[in-house]
Amino acid sequence: MIKNFLLISVRNILRNKGAAYLNILGLTLGMAACIFLFNYIQSHLFYDQLPGRNNVFRVETTTSTRGEITVRDAFTAPVVGPHLAELYEGVNDYVRLLPFSEYGSAFFKYQKHDSLALSVFVEKAYYADQSILNVLSLKLLQGNQDSVLTAPNTLLLSATLAKSIFPKQIEENTSIIGQEFVSAAAGFFEQTYVIGGVFDDRPVKTHLKFDLLASLSSPATGMNNPGMQHSEVIYTYVLVSPDFDISAVEKAATSPVSSAQMDTYEKGISLRPIEDIHLTTDISNEPENGISPTLLIFLSVIAVIIVVLACTNYVNNAIINSIERAKEIGVRKLLGITPTQLTLTFVGEALLTNTLAGVLSIFFFLFGTKLIVMYTKISYPPVGYSNMAVFILFLIVLILVSTLLSSAYPAFHLSSLNPIDSLRGKTSVLNSGNLGKGSSIIRSLLIFQLTSSIIFLSAVYIVYLQLDYMERSGGTSREIKMSGVFPGLPGANEEFTNQVDRFILHNKGEGIRGIGISNLYQGKIKTMQAISGLAPVEKQEDGIYVKLFPGLKDTTYNLYVIDQQYWKDSSAVFRAGRNFRNMGDDFNSLIVNESAAKALGFGDPEMAVQQTIDSRGGYHMVVGVVKNQQPDSPPSIYVTGFRHRTYMDFVLFYQPNQSENISTFLQEMKFQIGTYFPNFFFLSRGFENRLALEEGMLKMFFFFAIIAIVIANMGMFGLASYVTQKRTKEIGIRKILGAPTHNIMLLLLYDFLKLILIAYLISNPIVWFSAKEWLDDYPFRIGLDPTLILFPVLFILFISTLVIAEKCWQTAIKSPLDSLDAN
Fold first, then answer.
1. Is residue 386 part of a domain?
2. Does a structural domain hold residue 528?
3. What's the pLDDT at 718?
4. Is residue 801 part of a domain?
5. 805, 742 in Cβ contact below 8 A?
6. How far apart (Å, rounded) are the C-alpha atoms in residues 625 and 628?
7. MacB-like periplasmic core domain: which residues (predicted)?
8. Which site from 287, 305, 525, 603 is most exposed, i.e. has the minimal number of CB atoms within 10 Å?
9. At what angle do helices 293-321 and 388-415 cross, to 10 degrees?
10. CA distance 673 to 19
């Protein structure tokens, strides 16, 4: 029986090749677009699928105003993890991760045995507790599972990174434990790290990517600084018991930090399941960009619409082809085939057509992904072997759903045709009430197709106009705030400082409206290291420096990079000497605390001022001594200047001209700033990131708009065939009565103009409301006016007219006698 159904389906497809090709093409395009969106959506839904993930939570800092959470921050203070583990029995373990640098990367030098130094750049690196192996299920390939990250300055490398640096050893399964890396540049911040092990690569779909881990007990972290323990600079994850009540922790952790009569805010913490982190976008200091669930829902709706659009074409073509298949259906009914068997036949045809379209859609999908990667900046996930089963299952479900959508009404419609009317011929079928209902279905579905096409094309047009306005600014001057970091220059002396001053003086008021320069990161100390080998020296007449205290014991000092803004009230802080002057003036100066002055051999703070300190070949002068923060504060030294990492905040003034847009302006400013500050790196790229994202979305919208328009015009072509068949005799009579051909053409086109007008009236409020909501996020935006949707409507009208004109023209010029003889 199945064989007979299959043979009948194949024969009918081959007999109506034109309709079959249109059906297969429309369904192929619709399925390919749906698969494309499905692969993108599902890749973002299943992040951080780690063993025991249901019990792993990230601790986040919350700020509440009048009892409502207004700010969420992925960073917490280092004390939060230990305190939670101490206070709650259900907190089984915790791990803290500190970014290796402000933008998460690390730079090392590895001295190979052949005396060649190998530079190693790691894009994502963190300092971490030993417990990371347990909390985040990190698999160790080399090293001691119980103590690999306990010792200071110990490194863990990912398998990929280890193989890129030590290919021979990894291939031969030889241990690389004990190899030494040197971090950063020479001078104060040179630190030696030792490899303690290798871990298996992190999964691709995780919000927390890294290729290198260093021990959190390393001196460079500054964790031994009491002031850092309460600064929100670290990521904290906790492993809890399955029955642990996290709401009790969040409620107890809220505590007021300041209040006023009308404005009270509180600091607290919240716990977020690790698998939910990627699906959030309102968290500050995220290690990786998340994705909005609203966007995923929006893309899911688009996928459904595209598939429904493709299925509507099949429905329309099936109803129209029922005119040609009328006698076949009548004969089969008179031979005794039941309505159920007839329905199964039509469902079988739809299943075969959808299966062919499904197979072809895979090739369209693969080709489309290549285009997306080549021509957009959208990070599109590849289809790998790990998710191949899910992909195939979705394709099968898609084919079955598409078969159901496309065959349900046609099967009911065709099986319900009156066999007597069917045997009388086309005219009888066209005039039957059954086909009249089919005509209403065709028109309704076509209105849906046209409405969707107008909405898609309007979205493309509005996004394009807004991006073009952002690029060219529409003649509007504006200020753009950008921040960046200068990594420091070992030779930054007085000449370099004067060069910077000339740069600021020359540019301020032109391209740069304002500039702020500081060694502090957002007002806080960001860079801290532990150093040793410091000794007070005195210059002799022959120019040789000799130690003041030859028997002085070597001490480890905490080294902090600050500037003159760090101590607001210097009179209450300094025991002797002065604060740093303007940024860059004290490039060879030091400020020490009382403990450091004593460790350097100076019993009286006044004695330390103006003394020269040798730091492994570099000479610095002590200009001030500050009080200890605590009686037992460790020896601490403070430096400043362009020799160290420096943060810059720019207010760039953009005044457009005919040959320049914002992107060009920013590129010119980057080049200009980079000329004076080598290796300068912009931190804030909000404008560029958003522009790149929406340019990618524009191209993706254009892709879907083209599919929608193609499918809609297939429907138009089908409807044109139906209308011309139905009105053939009417046209013949009109021509006999003297109606000119162009009047008949206008009469036929009028039916389609009404459908486009209805589609416009439906789509107009949808487009208007959506565009207003989207544009409200922009401080500078285009204005809303009727032409924003009028242009897409005119474009679709033009394309549709071309599609249907040929079919209508053939009918309009047909001989009236032939028209009257049509059966």
1. no
2. yes
3. 65
4. no
5. no
6. 9
7. 22-254
8. 603
9. 40
10. 63
